[in-house]
Write a structure and sequence with these properties.
There is one protein chain. The chain is mostly helical. The protein is built from 14 helices and no strands. The C terminus is likely disordered.
């Protein structure tokens, strides 16, 4: 049976007070109920910062050649971060510093399972294979790395070197073309590699009794790098076999003033008056 009369300003003030009081209560309730989550986030962020510090210190230890400190920081980073892809590389490098290549290999192979670290794992395994002289395994790993990063200069140059060392001339020619497109090699180096590969392909063709193709490849090698002495001599020999004595004379006459190398004369000794003219 109560009746309260008041003015409009007092009513507005009372409503505002009640609204403010309710807002404060709701805010306090939100803070109280969200406190555990906020505390958990703070702890995770703190652990993450410490983990990255440990990761950085481990990398510094690797650079300084301190295997014990690198291994200790790798374990600490692994516990704090709980993100194996971030710490496996450090663990592998620490194992290598400690001379434990088997442990390093296990870490590198584990890295292949994650897309984020697969390329790093391949590089580590590739370096190990090259150090052990396993050319076949190294080529396999380098080709897989090329599949992931087809324009990476060190991948293309390493694969080119491995394929030429293994005598895979056709594959080496394809890798060289890809390296040229990606500008992974300087122009002079690319021309030198091209001439060397063509010479070896020509030798292979000659060994398989394909003389005409051997001559064609020798001509391509000479065009690729005219200053390549081996290409000049090989072209002269193939031209002589093909009965092109006059072409050989022109080739030697062209090269002799620049590089009077004895092999330029040896390759045509006894086949006409050219040696006398060159020596005279």
């Amino acid at each position: 049976g109560w009746r309260i009369d008041t003015s409009v300003p007092i009513l507005i003030a009372a409503t505002a007070f009640v609204a403010a009081l309710l807002a404060t209560i709701i805010r306090l309730w939100s803070v109280l109920t969200g406190a555990p989550r906020a505390f958990g986030r703070w702890r995770r962020e703190r652990r993450r910062r410490k983990g990255y510090v440990a990761l950085t210190q481990g990398m510094v230890a690797v650079a300084a050649g301190d295997p014990d400190e690198a291994r200790r920081q790798a374990r600490r980073a692994d516990v704090l971060l709980n993100e194996p892809p971030l710490t496996m590389l450090l663990s592998a490098q620490a194992a290598q510093l400690n001379g434990d290549e088997d442990a390093a290999r296990r870490y590198f192979e584990k890295m292949l399972e994650s897309p984020e670290t697969e390329f790093l794992g391949l590089r580590g395994l590739l370096v190990q294979a090259m150090r052990e002289g396993d050319n076949t395994r190294a080529i396999e790993l380098a080709r897989r790395a090329r599949g992931l990063r087809p324009k990476t200069p060190w991948v293309l140059s390493t694969l080119l070197d491995l394929e030429t060392r293994g005598g895979a001339w056709r594959e080496a020619a394809e890798t060289l073309a890809q390296a040229q497109r990606a500008r992974a090699l300087a122009a002079p180096a690319a021309r030198h590699h091209e001439a060397a590969i063509l010479i070896e392909q020509s030798r292979q063709a000659l060994a398989e009794k394909r003389g005409r193709e051997a001559l064609r490849l020798a001509e391509q090698a000479h065009r690729a790098e005219p200053d390549h002495l081996a290409a000049v001599i090989w072209l002269a020999e193939r031209s002589l076999d093909a009965g092109k004595a006059r072409a050989v004379e022109r080739l030697v006459e062209q090269e002799w003033p620049r590089r009077p190398h004895p092999e330029l004369l040896t390759c045509i000794a006894g086949r006409g008056p050219l040696p006398n003219r060159c020596n005279g």
